[in-house]
Amino acid sequence: MSLEQEIAKIVKANGAELYDSEIVNEGEETIFRVYVSREGGVNLDLCAEISNMLSPYLDVHPPMNSPYRLEVSSPGIERKLRKPEHFKGAVGERVKLKVPGQDRLKGLLKSADSQGVTVATKHGDELYPYSEIKTAKTYFDWKK
Fold this sequence. Notes:
Elements: H1 3-13, E1 17-26, E2 29-37, H2 44-60, E3 69-73, H3 84-89, E4 94-98, E5 105-112, E6 116-121, E7 124-129, E8 135-138
Parallel strand pairs: 2-3
Antiparallel strand pairs: 1-2, 4-5, 4-8, 5-6, 6-7
């Protein structure tokens, strides 16, 4: 079983779902972030419980060969979309996409399937296969 599958199993045992994970460098520190989601939301207690269960497992099966800090959190209201299931879960939300040859575009995610997405933009509905999407994230209109 892969590291991601094992992490997902631990997260699920705590009543949540693994959304994603990433390794980032901030200053001189390396952080292994685990994003979790749950119907009704994620709170600090849930993140602490998952972190306490993940930590001993990652001590034996580290995600990298150098020192790191573990962070467990919600993916947030403005979250990265990298997998088809992320896009499917964000249907009906506002998204920002970066695709080759275009400025960052914004629109409403109308649909997502295993091949790509349909986004309602100011130019109408636009279809993008996942292979053309460089980056994507949801965004919240803070002006409302």
